[in-house]
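Task card 7
Instruction: Convert sequence to C-alpha cells.
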Amino acid sequence: MIALAALLAALATGLAFGPAARASDRLAPRTLPAPLGRRRPRSPGASPQPAAAESTALAVDLIAACLEAGVALPAALAAGSAVADDTRREALAAAASALRRGAGDAAWAACATDPQMGAVVRICRRVGTTGAAVADDLRRLAGEQRRAHQAYRRRLAQRAAVWVVLPLGLCFLPAFLLLSVVPVVAALLPALR
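Output:
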C-alpha cells in the first residue's frame, strides 16, 4: 500500500515537472505563461512591457537633459527618439521633423495618441508656446514613469509568488495524503470491523 502511494506521488510529480512538461513549455508561445495558459487582453492604459517603460523614461530624461543644456526642442526630441522603443522612436522622430518644418500643434499628432507620451506632449507644448523651462517637469515625469513601472513589476512578482505555491497544492499535498493518511486509515480499518 505504501509502495503504491509512493509510486502515485512520484508519477504525479513526474507529470507536473518532468520532461513532458518542459517540452510543452518549449512548444508553448512565449507570450503565454505556462501555468495560466491564457492571458487577459491588455487594456490601452495597462502598464507597458519592461523594455518599453524603461526606454520611455530614459528618452524623457534625455529630452530633459537636452532642453536643460539649451538644445532646441526638435533636436531634443530627435535625441530622445534615439533611445526610445520602436513605436515611440517613430512618433518622436516624426514630431521632431514636423517641428523643424514649422508644423506647430499638428506635429504632436503621432505622440498624442500614446498614453505614455501624452504627458510628454503636454509638457513639451509649453516650450513651443510659452518658452517655459520644462526640464524639471520632464525629469519628474520620468521618475513617475519609473515608479509606476516598479510598482507594476512588484505586482507581477507578488502574483508569481502565489503561482509558486501551486506545485505544493497539486503534487506535494496529495503525496502527503497518500503516504501518511491513507496507510493510517488502512491500518485502522481492520480494527474497526
